[in-house]
């Protein structure tokens, strides 16, 4: 069975329908391209066909994009000359789309048949690149549809002509957010942006497209006409010059040069703008190949597309019946509880939000009201959706309201006594089938579970702040947590459309365990006299959203001091972070608590806007005369985290490296271009990683000691994904 079929109408319009078997949305694969080309050839050669409409057999969508596994396969199958294989494969795609675009015209732009794209809804990636090659794009007025080119989000860029065509259609300036940020629009906004040509009522989509095809329209693309001028100007045109200089600065400002795809995209656009269209396509293909050959792109695709999706679909879900949540309790209506109530109610779950006082519970619910008000202002919500959402949240102090809940998430103060009391009171009301989850960030789940007489139904569901923005949820199994509790947590996370990782119970679980050494390494360097700007900028140039010192300011020094004190108390003499405490406790004493105090590693103005680094820091910890080089600082920051991730794997806290990688990127913004800590170690190679560990240990101390697992892998020149990826035999 083929994904594309064609029906030739009596009116002379051939309708090609894309309908990928077994998928809810169309995705393009190798065979799909061949099938599409064969049908186009047939239609162009058939004198009875006046024109073509390409549409989709899926309700509400045209296509979700390219099956990214295909791209991974393209490179892996390309033999000894992967770059050549990739380039030729990409040029093959160009040839098919160019055939559509030329519609059978001769060199003089004579003859030819109009080809329209009719999009019932969502059209992403190749699902928009094909329409861009058509002569007119009709989109159904489907406000839920998303139209755009999101490739940059997974470390590549639109490489089937989308880059070159969009820039020529809209101009570099207007195309920039669509290409560089992967911005998606609904059909109406896509029309305003100039991406689609017409938005029509869904029921009239095919008729309108047919009508247009039969209207004998002009089909020559502007860039195939003599004297074509790019909207906004080419690079050496005065206006174009400003655009390109600005775009280059913007891209480097945003990416800090850490993301190869953004740079390659910009080069393809700039160089392509200087030459005729067909040469521009070739340039696009070369840069696309360059990106696909970069290990960063395969690592990003693997973590941010393939594995993220696998985890969301329940790759590590135990076998248990559907555990979808219908009614849940949220204990504590503070910062976290309010956010948890919001995202749960958004998912259609009935929420009972409990706090000690009615005002506190109401305040927690008001958070959802404020959130929806902002949505209404931005046109993303309506008074009706707001009312329906608020209707689902009952703010109360009355535990009896929890009756019938099948999940309770506790987010009260980080105090074992308070948590135990709340757990006991909840369990008196809810039935035996209810799963009880704690959102603690620091307390061991197995200890908290002692407050319950059914520890198999007790689990950690650890959200990140702000809940509505952060995509990761860490699920923590206590020693006695049962399979149904894990399934419940996973089904719940799926309902609220976040990405789960499942880890075992150990100090700070997984994410915080790795973030803390990152922050500590930054602070340690301050104590050594490394300048703060070097520390934070080194991190940002690695692709971290904020450097470690700025991160401390955002999360607050007193939180750091509290964690340090608790860790010290728990670890006793083995506590390794004295040098860090010297800085933290001193800052705390100086009242430099971070952004919330308008004073931290940075100064802030009256409005809370961040200024430069605080000069008092340099007085207390003077910068050393000789500063370390950038790579040394970067490696200290990277190894501090990745070695912790390796230890978490070694100790069985992490059971799946995919979770380690996806969790790192989504949880704390770990250098996304690298694909995560394990992918990064694979990129640099385990032998080199072990060698660097030895050097860093000699220079900076034991915390960089090479974990036994990494040492063993280095000796055998193994990679993490060969040894630990699911479904692969352990490589010898
Ligand atoms: P918060 O202080 O903002 O909120 C706690 C709420 O719990 C308060 O409204 C308080 O009145 C309420 N509360 C206290 N005792 C109660 C009781 N006996 N019954 C009912 N309500 C009670 O704290 P938060 O930042 O929302 O943190 C809550 C939990 O989430 C903590 O365990 C914390 O470790 C964890 N957590 C916090 C973050 C974060 O970034 N803040 C991130 C992940 C997890």
Written overview of the protein:
The protein is an alpha/beta fold and 732 residues long. The protein has three domains: 4-293, Alpha-Beta Complex (2-enoyl-CoA Hydratase, Chain A, domain 1), CATH 3.90.226; 327-506, NAD(P)-binding Rossmann-like Domain (Rossmann fold, 3-Layer(aba) Sandwich), CATH 3.40.50.720; 512-630, N-(1-d-carboxylethyl)-l-norvaline Dehydrogenase, domain 2. Helices cover 49% and strands 12% of the residues. It has 30 helices and 21 strands. The strands form five sheets. It has an eight-stranded mixed beta sheet, with helices on both faces. It has a six-stranded mixed beta sheet with strand order 1-2-4-7-9-11, with helices on both faces. The chain has a three-stranded parallel beta sheet with strand order 5-8-10. Helix 12 packs across helix 26 and helix 14 (358-377) runs antiparallel to helix 15 (383-391). The two termini are 40 Å apart. The relative contact order is 0.06. Bound molecules: nicotinamide-adenine-dinucleotide. Nicotinamide-adenine-dinucleotide is lined by residues 331-337, 354-356, 360, 411-414, 418, 422, 439-441, 462-463, 465. Pfam families: 3HCDH, 3HCDH_N, ECH_1. It catalyses: a (3S)-3-hydroxyacyl-CoA + NAD(+) = a 3-oxoacyl-CoA + NADH + H(+). Pathway: Lipid metabolism; fatty acid beta-oxidation.
């Amino acid at each position: 069975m083929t994904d594309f079929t064609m029906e030739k109408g009596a009116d002379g319009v051939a309708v090609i329908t894309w309908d990928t078997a077994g998928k809810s949305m169309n995705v393009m694969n190798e065979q799909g391209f061949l099938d599409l080309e064969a049908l186009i050839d047939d239609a162009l050669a058939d004198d009875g066909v006046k024109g073509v409409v390409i549409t989709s057999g899926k309700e509400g969508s045209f296509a979700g994009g390219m099956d990214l596994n295909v791209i991974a396969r393209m490179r892996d199958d390309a033999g000894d000359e992967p770059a050549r294989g990739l380039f030729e494969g990409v040029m093959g795609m160009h040839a098919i789309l160019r055939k559509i675009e030329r519609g059978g015209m001769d060199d003089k732009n004579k003859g030819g048949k109009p080809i329209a794209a009719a999009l019932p809804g969502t059209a992403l990636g190749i699902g928009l690149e094909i329409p861009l090659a058509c002569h007119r794009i009709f989109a159904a007025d489907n406000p839920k549809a998303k139209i755009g080119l999101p490739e940059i989000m997974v470390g590549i860029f639109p490489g089937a002509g989308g880059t070159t065509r969009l820039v020529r259609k809209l101009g570099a300036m207007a195309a920039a957010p669509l290409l560089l940020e992967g911005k998606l629009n609904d059909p109406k906004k896509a029309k305003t942006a100039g991406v689609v040509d017409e938005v029509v009522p869904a029921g009239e989509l095919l008729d309108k497209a047919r009508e247009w095809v039969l209207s004998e329209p002009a089909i020559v693309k502007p860039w195939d006409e003599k004297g074509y001028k790019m909207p906004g100007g080419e690079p050496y045109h005065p206006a174009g010059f400003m655009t390109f200089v600005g775009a280059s600065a913007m891209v480097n400002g945003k990416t800090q040069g850490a993301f190869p795809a953004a740079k390659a995209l910009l080069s393809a656009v700039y160089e392509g703008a200087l030459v005729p269209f067909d040469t521009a396509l070739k340039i696009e293909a070369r840069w696309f190949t360059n990106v696909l050959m970069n290990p960063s792109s395969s690592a990003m695709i693997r973590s941010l597309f393939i594995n993220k999706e696998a985890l969301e679909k329940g790759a590590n879900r135990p076998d248990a019946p559907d555990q979808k949540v219908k009614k849940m309790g949220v204990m504590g209506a503070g910062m976290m509880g309010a956010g948890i109530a919001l995202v749960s109610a958004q998912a259609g779950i009935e929420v009972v939000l409990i706090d000690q006082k009615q005002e506190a519970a109401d305040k927690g619910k008001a958070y959802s009201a404020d959130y929806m008000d902002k949505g209404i202002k931005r046109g993303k919500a309506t008074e009706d959706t707001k009312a329906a959402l608020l209707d689902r949240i009952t703010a109360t102090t009355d535990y009896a309201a929890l009756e019938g809940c099948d999940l309770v998430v506790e987010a009260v103060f980080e105090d074992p006594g308070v948590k135990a009391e709340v757990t006991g009171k909840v369990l008196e009301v809810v039935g035996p089938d209810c799963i009880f989850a704690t959102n603690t960030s620091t307390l061991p789940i197995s200890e908290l579970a002692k407050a319950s007489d059914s520890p198999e139904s007790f689990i950690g569901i650890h959200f990140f702040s702000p809940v509505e923005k952060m995509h990761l949820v860490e699920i923590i199994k206590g020693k006695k947590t049962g399979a149904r509790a894990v399934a419940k947590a996973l089904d719940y996370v799926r309902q609220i459309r976040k990405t789960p990782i499942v880890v075992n119970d150990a100090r700070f679980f997984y994410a915080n365990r790795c973030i803390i050494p990152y922050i500590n390494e930054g602070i340690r360097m301050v104590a050594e006299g490394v300048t703060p700007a070097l520390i934070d900028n080194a991190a940002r140039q690695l692709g971290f959203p904020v450097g470690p010192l700025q991160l401390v300011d955002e999360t607050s020094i007193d939180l750091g001091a509290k964690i340090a004190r608790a860790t010290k108390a728990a670890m006793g003499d083995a506590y390794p972070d004295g040098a860090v405490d010297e800085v933290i406790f001193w800052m705390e004493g100086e009242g430099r608590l971070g952004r919330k105090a308008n004073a931290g590693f940075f100064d802030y103005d009256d409005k809370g806007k961040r200024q430069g680094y605080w000069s008092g820091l340099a007085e207390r910890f003077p910068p050393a005369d000789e500063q370390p080089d950038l790579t040394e600082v970067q490696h200290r920051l990277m190894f501090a985290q990745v070695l912790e991730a390796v230890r978490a794997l070694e100790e069985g806290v992490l059971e799946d490296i995919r979770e380690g990688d996806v969790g790192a990127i989504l949880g704390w913004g770990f250098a996304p271009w690298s694909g995560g800590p394990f992918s990064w170690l694979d990129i640099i190679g385990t032998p080199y990683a072990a060698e660097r560990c030895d050097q860093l240990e000699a220079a900076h101390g034991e915390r960089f000691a090479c974990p036994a697992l990494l040492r063993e892998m280095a000796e055998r020149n193994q990679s993490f994904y060969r040894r630990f990826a699911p479904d692969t035999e352990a490589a010898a």
